[in-house]
Amino acid sequence: MPLYPGTGAKNETGAKNTVVTAPLSPNDGSDHFRDAFKDRVLPRLNDFRPDFVIISAGFDAHHRDPLAQINLVGYDLH
After folding, report:
1. Per-residue pLDDT averaged across 64-76, rounded?
2. Per-residue pLDDT at 67 exceeds 80
């Protein structure tokens, strides 16, 4: 937000209350992203208890992509 004007507001829930948004600001980075996922997305998933989840995962939040400026960095889990 606001990459697609009119969408992504924190209070946006969709027609059947199944949309979860976690707006981030430019340059928030990985810590803010993880916090938003933990604090906003996961609790809603636990409440909703879906049979399956579809994730659209692009790369525009990666620190090397200049579009979204979220600046996520990967780390080795090993």
Report:
1. 80
2. no
Spatial separation of the C-alpha atoms in residues 12 and 18, rounded to whole Å: 10
Alpha-carbon gap, residue 52 to 44, rounded angstroms: 14
Output the pTM of the full model: 0.71
Q: DSSP 3-state assignment of 33?
A: helix
CB of 67 closer than 8 Å to CB of 59: no
Enumerate the β-bridge partners of residue 62: 72
H or E stretch at 7: none
pLDDT (0 to 100) of residue 10: 85
| DSSP-assigned letter for residue 24 | -
CA atoms within 13 Å, Cβ hemisphere of 17: 4
CA atoms within 13 A on the CB side of 74: 6
